[in-house]
Fold these 2 entries.
Entry 1:
Amino acid sequence: MTTIKAICKQAKSAALQLAQLSEADKNQLLLAMATQLEADTALILAGNAKDMAAGREKQLADAMLDRLLLTEERIKSLANAVRAIAALPDPVGQIRQMAPRPNGIQVGKMRIPLGVIAMIYEARPNVTADAGALCLKSGNAVILRGGREALNSSLAIAASLHKAMETQGINPAAISVIPDPDRALLLELLQQKDSVDLVIPRGGEGLIHFVSDHSKIPVIQHYKGICHLYVDKAADLDKAMALLLNGKTQRPGVCNALETLLVHQDIAPQFLALASAAFEEKQVEVFACDLSLPYFAQASKADEAQFDTEYLRLAISVKTVASYDEAVAHIQRHSSGHTEVICTQDLSTAQRFLKQINSAVVMVNASSRFSDGGELGLGAEIGISTSKLHAYGPMGLESLTTEKYIVIGDGQTR
Amino acid sequence: MTTIKAICKQAKSAALQLAQLSEADKNQLLLAMATQLEADTALILAGNAKDMAAGREKQLADAMLDRLLLTEERIKSLANAVRAIAALPDPVGQIRQMAPRPNGIQVGKMRIPLGVIAMIYEARPNVTADAGALCLKSGNAVILRGGREALNSSLAIAASLHKAMETQGINPAAISVIPDPDRALLLELLQQKDSVDLVIPRGGEGLIHFVSDHSKIPVIQHYKGICHLYVDKAADLDKAMALLLNGKTQRPGVCNALETLLVHQDIAPQFLALASAAFEEKQVEVFACDLSLPYFAQASKADEAQFDTEYLRLAISVKTVASYDEAVAHIQRHSSGHTEVICTQDLSTAQRFLKQINSAVVMVNASSRFSDGGELGLGAEIGISTSKLHAYGPMGLESLTTEKYIVIGDGQTR
C-alpha cells in the first residue's frame, strides 16, 4: 500500500519540475520521446506479444484483442501522435485580463498546470503514450493505471518514454505506471488527494461509476452519450437525412453516434418515409413511439424508458413530437449531456436551440460525429466530460490547466 | 427524506427557466428583490429577533451573536449588495473563439449557468440574500442550507425574496431554503448528484471536511489560508514592513491574513530588528526558527510543524532562509494554496516567483489582504477555492458558470 502513496508523492515532486519547463523544452522532450518509441519498436512489440498471448489464452473478444494489438505501423502512428501534440500551442503561462485596480495594483490571471493527473483506463496501450504526451505538454505529471490486459505493453512503452526523459534531464516519475492492476491498489490511488489533482477514467460505464463512487479526488465524469437529432418542421430534408445516416451508421459503437431521432409532426410523414427506407437498407433496428410506428414496416414499440438507451449499435429510438418545445423538453429529460443536434433552416429556431439546450456540444445542421476533440479543433483529446464542473465536452490541453491570480503592486496595503 | 429530493428536483426545474432569462430580466428581478427586502424589514427583524433570543439562551459567543444580528441598517446594506450584483456584467451567453474548421462548420464556446448550486453555511443570515442574488444573476438556482442559529432570519429573508420573484413570474424554487438544519438532511442533500451541480461550503474547517467527505456532488474546497510573505534580499524594507504589518495586523482573523514571514538571511539583521519592534508594539506573538530567534526579545521556538499553523490571531511564524530557492521550497511544502507574497525590487526574482509559486493568488509587493473578490475586481465573491479544479482563488459570477461548445454547420457530415 505504501508503494501507491510513494508513487503519487514522487509524481507530485516531478510535477514541480514540469511546471517550470519552457514550451521549447517540452517540445524537445516530446520529440525525443517520439524518436525513442520508434527506436524501441522491438522491445514494445515483445511486451505486447506477452499481452496478446495471455489475451488469447483468456479468450478475449476479437474486438478487444484488436484494440490490444500493436504493430510496427501502430507504434509509428503512436510516435506521430506524440509529435502532433508537440506541435500544439502550450496553454501554460498565458496571461489574460491584466488590468489595474483603482489603488494601482495590477491584477490578472495566469494559466498553470493542474499538477498530477491520474488516468484510469482499460486495454488500450496507446493511451500510455497519448496521455503521457498530453500531460507533459501541459506541464502535468501523470499516473497511468491501465487494465491488466495491456500491462506489459504499457510498461514497455513507459520504459521507452523514460529513456527519452532521462536524456532530457526530466524526472521519470513524471510518467508513472502502476505496475499492478489490482483493485485494492486502485482504491488506494483514489485516496491520494494530497498529491493527485484530477482523475480521468476512460472506459465503460462500470469503470467510471467505480472510480466516481470511490474517489476522494475530483473525477471527470463521462457516463454515456445519448445524442439526439431533432428534425424541425423547417428542416431541409436532404440535410436531415445526411445527418441522420452519418450520425447513426458511420460508426455506431462510439459515444457521439446518434441514439434518438425526434421529428416534428408536420414533416413526419415525408421524413419518416425516407428514414424508413434508409434504415431498412442499412439494417438499422427501430424502436418507435406510437405516432411513428406506422411509418416502419418492422419496428418495435418504444416506451418512455427506451429513450434512455445508448445502443452503441445499429439501432435507434424514434419519436414524433407535436412542437419544437416538446422536442426540447424530451431532450432535457433524456439527454446525457453529451451532444444534441437540430436540423432546421429557420434562424430563430436555430438560435433558440443553441441557447436552450445546455449539453456539452450543441449543433445546428452538423453531424453529431463532429463532437470530438480532433474535429472541434482541439488537436488532441484526453477525454470528454459530461459533467459541467471544470471541463465540459471534449477536453484538450487547456482542460489540463487552471488559472491563478497574479497581482503586481508597489507596496500597496489595505 | 423525500422532501430533500423534492426540493432539489424543483430547483433543477426552476434552473431551466433561469437559464433562459435575459440579462435585463435578471437585473429587474434583482432590483425587485432589493426593494422587497427593504419593504419587509419589520418581518425580517422579527425572524431575527427569534434567532437572537435563542442564541442568547444558548449563550453563543459575542462574535457569533454579532454576526447573527440584523438591524434596519444591515438590511439596507443587504439590499444594496443585491443592487450591486444587479449592476455586474452577466457572463451567461458570452461566445468566444468562434472560428471555422476546414470543412466549414463553425465552432465556438458559449458560457452557460452550472444549473443548481447548494450553499452550506453557518450562522450568517446575509449569505441567504448574497448567495441568492449571485446565483440568480448567473442563471443558477440555489439551495441554501444555513446553520440552525440563523434559520428564522434566513426563512424571513427567503420569504421576502420569494415575494419579489413571484411578481416577476419566477419559480420560487429557484431560491430554496432547507427548513431543517438536521445533519441527516444535509447528508441526504449531498447525495443529490442528479439535480445539484456544485456544493459550496462556507465556514470552519470542520464543516468543509464534513461536506467534502460525504458529498457525491463536486465541492469547492477551501480549508485554510496559510499565507506567506517572503522578504527577499532585494526588498525595499519600508514596503516590506508595510506589507508585513498590513497582512498580519489589519484583520488577523481572516483567511488572507499573513501567517508566516520568510526573510532572506542577507537582510534578516536589519529587517527582523524592525519587525521585532513593530511586533512588540502591536503585541504580535512570535514563533521563530533558530536563526530568527535572537532578533526577538520574546519569542517561542518554532519547529517544522509550527509552519503549518493558521493562527487567525495576532501571532506569526518567522523563518530566516539562506536563499530565494529555500523560500520557494518552504512555501511549496507548507502552503495551503491560498495567497503568497514576495517583496522584492529585483525584476527577475519577481518574475520567477510569479511563475514558480502556484497558489491561487501570487503577489509581488502587495498586501495579502487584497486576496479577496472585491479587491481583485470581481465585484462580489461567493467563496474562495484553494483546490485547482473548476475555480481557483476568489470566485465571482464567472465561477458559477461553465462553457458548452456550439457548432453551426450547413449539413456537413463526417
Note: Chain B has a mean pLDDT of 95.
Entry 2:
Amino acid sequence: MLAWNTNCDLQETIPDMTEVQDPSSGDVTHDAFLGGRVYVYQPKKGRHRAGLDAVFLAAALPVETTGRIVDLGSGVGTAGFCAAARLPDISVTLVEIDEAVLSLAQKALQDPENTHFADRIDLLHADITAKGSLRHANGLLPTMADHAIMNPPYYEADRFRASPKSGRAGAHMLDERGLEPWVKTAADIVREGGSLTVIFRADGLHELLSVLQGRFGAIDVIPLRPRPDAPATRIVLRAIRASKAPLKLLPGFVLHESEGSDFTSQSKNIMRGGQGLGLTPR
Amino acid sequence: MLAWNTNCDLQETIPDMTEVQDPSSGDVTHDAFLGGRVYVYQPKKGRHRAGLDAVFLAAALPVETTGRIVDLGSGVGTAGFCAAARLPDISVTLVEIDEAVLSLAQKALQDPENTHFADRIDLLHADITAKGSLRHANGLLPTMADHAIMNPPYYEADRFRASPKSGRAGAHMLDERGLEPWVKTAADIVREGGSLTVIFRADGLHELLSVLQGRFGAIDVIPLRPRPDAPATRIVLRAIRASKAPLKLLPGFVLHESEGSDFTSQSKNIMRGGQGLGLTPR
C-alpha cells in the first residue's frame, strides 16, 4: 500500500529515473485508491508512480458527466480507473505510449475489486505527441471524446536532465515542444462543448494558459495547496472546447491541516471517499 | 465618506459612464483611506471612483520597498498616496492622461491630513499608451522606476460599449490594444530587478500573463475573493523585470466573512490599518 507515499505533500521532488526496470520482471506493487474501490499495479521503480495527482484529476469531473472520457497519457490507469469508479455513466479510453505500463492497466482490469467499472475501460497504444495523420491512424480520432483528462509530464527537458540510462523518462519529462502537442491533440479529439481537464505544476500556469489560447475557453483554475498558507504546488484546470466564456480562479483545496500531517477532511473525502471537486458543467 | 461604497464586494458592475461632469464644477467628494491617513478628492460622477482596488494595489508593495514608485494611470492618486503613506522610504510619481483628474491629486496634496507624505509625491501628465519616442519626450523615461504599480482600465473595448456621450471612458475602457501598451511601457520604465504590480479582473489572468511573457518573471499571483467559497473577482499580480524565476500562485485574501457583510479581520487590517499583503521582495 504505497499509494500515498509519492507526492504526498505535492512536493516538487525530482523523481529517480536512473533505475528503470521491466515491470514484467515482477517488481510491481498493488495499490488501493478511493478507499479500495480502485486497485492498480505499479512498477516499484523506474516509472512514474501515481498518487494524489491522478485522484484529484479524476475528481475534477462533475458528477453529471456522461459519455466517453479519453485519458491522454494514462500510465497504469489510476486517473481513468478513479473516474470510472466515481461516475457510472462514463466509458474511459486510456491512451499510453509505454506498452509495458499499458499491460499493467490490462492486468488490473482482471482484478475482482475492479469489476464494477472494468467493462467500461478500453486501452489504446498511441503516441499523443505524434503528428495528426499518424495519431489518426493510431486511433486518436477527431471529436472521439466527450471529455479528455491529462496528467502530462511535469518537467521540461531544458530545465532538468534525464538520466541517460533512462529509456522511459517520458512520464516525467516534456520534450522541447512542451505542452503544445498535448493540448493540440486534446483540441483535436474533444468535441465542441466537451472539456479538457489537466493537472499540472502550479508554476506552469502561464505555459498552460498560453497553449489553451484559441482552442479552449471557460477556464476554471483550481489551486491545490499543501497547507492553508502555502502557495499552490499543483493546479487542476478545466476548460471547454471552443468556448469564449471567461476564466474563473476558484478557491481550490488545502491538502493538510495547518499543523501536523493530517489531511483535511475535504481532501480525505476526495482521496478516500471518492468525492468530486465540486466543479459543475459549463 | 463614500470611499467604500464603490466596488465594496469587488463586484463586476459596469460603471455608469453616461454622465461625465467637469470636476472643476465642484461636485467632488473628499474621501478617507487607511483609517484617515490618506485623503483624496474624487469627482462624484462620470469618472472612475477609487476603492478597495487602489488600497489592495498599494498594500502589495513589501514593507522593505525603497526608491521611486511610478503609478501608471494614477487617477486622483489613491493607490500612490496609500503606498507613500505606508512606506516612508519611497517617492511616488503619479502618471495620468486626464488633466482634470490630476488637478484633484494636486489639490489633495495641499491637505493638512496628507502632509506626512505629500512632499514625496510628484505628478506627470502623460499618455501611457503613446509610442516610445512620445512617452520619453513626455518624461516617461527608460529605467526611471524602481517599481511600477498599475490599476489599468478593466473593460475591453470590444466587450462593452462606452456611451458616446462619454469623453473620458479611458479610466474604464481598454482600447483595442488591450493591456499590451500598458505592460510595454512598464517594461520600459522599470529597471532590471525592479517590479511591476497590477490589480486586474481575475478573468483577465491569461491576458495579463500573456503580455508579461518575455518581459517580467518571478510572477506572484494573489487572488482576491469576496467570500471564502467564491471565485476570485480580482487578482493582484507582482512580477520582476527580466527575472526567470517561476510563477507562484498564492492563497490570496478573502474580503468578507462567510455570513453577513462584515469584512474579515485580515481585510480590515489592510483597508483601515494600512497593513501590507505580506509579499516579500524576490
Note: Chain B touches chain A at residues 202-206, 209-210, 212-213, 219, 221, 223, 225, 228-232, 235, 246-251 (CB under 8 Å).
